[in-house]
From TrEMBL:
Keywords: Methyltransferase, Transferase. GO terms for molecular function: methyltransferase activity; uroporphyrinogen decarboxylase activity. One of its GO terms (biological process) is porphyrin-containing compound biosynthetic process. It holds the Pfam family URO-D. This is Methyltransferase. PANTHER family: METHYLCOBAMIDE:COM METHYLTRANSFERASE MTBA. Residues 217-416 form the Uroporphyrinogen decarboxylase (URO-D) domain.
């Protein structure tokens, strides 16, 4: 099997010739540019500036030589725009706080203040207030709460969020078509379309780091309380977001056709380490109908499999995910309460694909020994790979500062398992 055939088998719950691997296939299976730079060095690959494919998290572009060395099978079809509102090509040289040399989008504009914080302008517009910041010594950005106080008695959800959701233009469509042809017809990798746009209540998007002047309920604590205080506000936002998403899906289908195998739909986290962000009842009432509508459209009009990312203890929601048409669940946070790997595979493995779960990126990968990493990867592969329905990836992105020997131990374990 080639990479595309391998992934297709796995996501159709068939056992492929070997376990598929994802490194860098989307914004939640990637690697921080700092760790990528170190990995290239330890693998003896040419050293050069790392191209940043997702500046908010400072994820590095995983090039062909790294894909081959890692045995990876998936590549991303990115959008032109980013969470910081930039759209330019990565041609601006920059050094991360730890000295890692990278290429940032040409319209990336920032300042460094007296505390050593890096402050970013949305859309590269220096006339707008800063929209994201990174503390001194940091390795990724966080959004800044900038919205003015809202009138609780006169809420205006459609006006507040209209700028957040836009129908894509012809330039986007041409870009999708060109890139999908390049990725699909000139390689045998599986292609994940990272369209986005359906992350209902996504904590990275609510503050609006890509907007010059966000309005309305934007602080995450206010947004979470709005589930109880102003559910009609959220419902109006979700309805508008879904309507725009369906229009963009049709444009995307026309542009890429069957040149992608997986579509990244949502990155909203519904879990914490120990439980749900909201009750299951709230999820079923506010979120599920809109996700169902989008998934139904995708399944009725394309051959794509739907990819959903949700961190945390979400085992309670997996039956709802399956019912509303989620094909693939990521990152499979096995360290969270109720997310035991064997339980998940045995209970749901024949009805939903697990994409992730391969190594704990909170503790084992950054702070464990190389042997602990190796052993955990082997154990997870043994559990999840049986009968297909699994793509190996770390639990969320590989962060900065991971010991290079732990990274190599992870991929050595994958290679050894594949060769059994």
């Amino acid at each position: 099997m080639n990479s595309r055939e391998r992934v297709l088998a796995a996501i159709h719950h068939k056992e492929p010739d070997r376990v598929p691997v994802d490194l860098g296939g989307c914004g939640q299976t990637g690697i921080n540019a700092s760790s990528l730079y170190a990995l290239r060095k330890v693998w003896g690959l040419p050293e050069h500036r790392i191209r940043i494919c997702e500046p908010y998290q400072l994820l590095g572009e995983v090039e062909l030589d790294v894909l081959q060395k890692a045995g990876a099978d998936v590549v991303p079809l990115w959008n032109r725009g980013t969470l910081l509102g930039t759209t330019g090509a990565c041609t601006k040289p920059w050094e991360m706080p730890d000295g890692t040399p990278v290429w940032m989008p040409s319209d990336f504009e920032y300042d460094v203040n007296e505390k050593g914080e890096t402050l970013v302008y949305p859309c590269g517009d220096r006339s707008a207030p800063y929209s994201a910041h990174m503390p001194k010594g940091g390795s990724f950005f966080d959004g800044i709460d900038r919205a003015e106080e809202y009138d609780e008695d006169h809420l205006t959800p459609l006006e507040d969020y209209r700028e957040s959701f836009a129908v894509k233009d012809e330039e986007d469509c041409r870009y999708w078509e060109k890139e999908s042809v390049r990725l699909s017809e000139h390689s045998d990798f599986a292609v994940m379309g990272v369209l986005g746009g359906m992350g209902l209540g996504d904590a990275a998007e609510i503050p609006g780091p890509f907007l010059k002047h966000p309005r309305g309920i934007r602080k995450m604590e206010d947004w979470l309380m709005a589930h109880i205080l102003y559910p009609d506000y959220l419902d109006a936002v979700f309805q508008m977001q879904t309507e725009v998403m369906l229009k963009n899906l049709e444009l995307y289908r026309q542009a890429v056709g069957d040149r992608i195998q997986v579509i990244w739909v949502s990155g909203t986290d519904f879990g914490t380490q120990n439980g749900l962000m909201q009750s299951r009842e709230i999820f079923q009432k506010l979120y599920k109908p809109y996700y169902q509508k989008v998934n139904d459209w995708i399944h009725q009009n394309t051959s794509w499999k739907t990819f959903y990312h949700s961190c945390g203890a979400v085992a309670e929601l997996i039956p709802d995910f399956i019912e509303m048409g989620v094909d693939i669940l990521n990152p499979v946070q096995c360290s969270a309460k109720g997310m035991d790997a064997a339980f998940l595979k045995e209970t749901y493995g024949d009805r939903i694909v697990f994409w992730g779960g391969g190594i704990d990126t909170q503790a084992t990968l950054p702070r464990g020994t190389a042997k602990e990493v190796y052993d955990q990867v082997l154990k997870r592969l043994e559990i999840f790979s049986k009968g297909g329905g699994y793509v190996f990836a770390a639990i969320h992105n590989i962060v900065a500062g991971v010991p290079p020997e732990n990274l190599t131990a992870m991929y050595q374990a994958v290679r050894d398992f594949r060769e059994r």
